[in-house]
Fold this sequence. Notes:
Elements: H1 2-22, H2 29-41, H3 48-81, E1 90-97, E2 105-111, H4 114-127, E3 130-138, E4 144-152, E5 158-165, H5 175-194, H6 213-226, H7 230-235, H8 241-244, H9 247-251, H10 259-281
Amino acid sequence: MRKQTSLAAATERSEGQIARMMAVPPGDSSSTVLALIERVALDPRTDVEKLDRMMAMYERLKAKEAEFAYNAAKGRILKKLVGIKIVKNRSALYEIEKGKPQNGTYQAFKYAPLEEIDKHLRPLLAEENMDLSYSDEPREGGGIRIRGRLKHLPSGHYEDSFLSAPLDTTGGKSEVQAAGSTNSFLRRYIACNIFNIVVVGDDDDGAMGTIDEDQTKTIVELIKKAKVGSKFLKYMKARSAEEAGSLQAAVATIAVRDYRKAISTLEEQIGKAEAGHAHLSS
């Protein structure tokens, strides 16, 4: 009985040691904790439930250390990126009026291609044993959703970032070309978002960046209240409901930079309609 009491007390002390280690910044705590667990586990009289609790605490400590290592490595990369200037060195045309390739109206803009961003970022990732990978999946209603995963290879800790967009069909692109263009666009924006990269001249880029789901719902509700449709979509340089398949899908093609413009335009239209209604009612 005395031996069992002694063992229970020793196990509780071990649990207490692990808890104290979890409360301080990670160092070599996990190896120390593992040694404690092995010592307790070797005794056949060990309480299995308490051993399970100790193992769970060990797993949480390992996860905490992995996150700490990830954040430290990412922080060092961010500091180095501050001194690196990434510029827009490629020109492109963005279709602002739909039509045949030879008849459409286009606006020129410059951007930093993915390979330009990767040229600066990849060596820094290698130095810190980190990897940035991408995967894509179809998006409901059309378009592409890209997942960017930044992973700290030694610890295994990773964080994901997601971005979606409709297919870039400007300039008479084929379906395959549109998918490739959109994929590249989303990957470079995800890389910039993860590392807070500001490309020189960034304010005039992002012509292909479109509003998100919540912004789309807000505009659709205002459109119905304002009782406007095709003319408004054309004014916002968005696809028509017929082209997109539905009003919501068409609204989703409005550029992010034009969101406030869309809201103010619709609110003004609603205000005029309400004023006219009030005048007729008086």
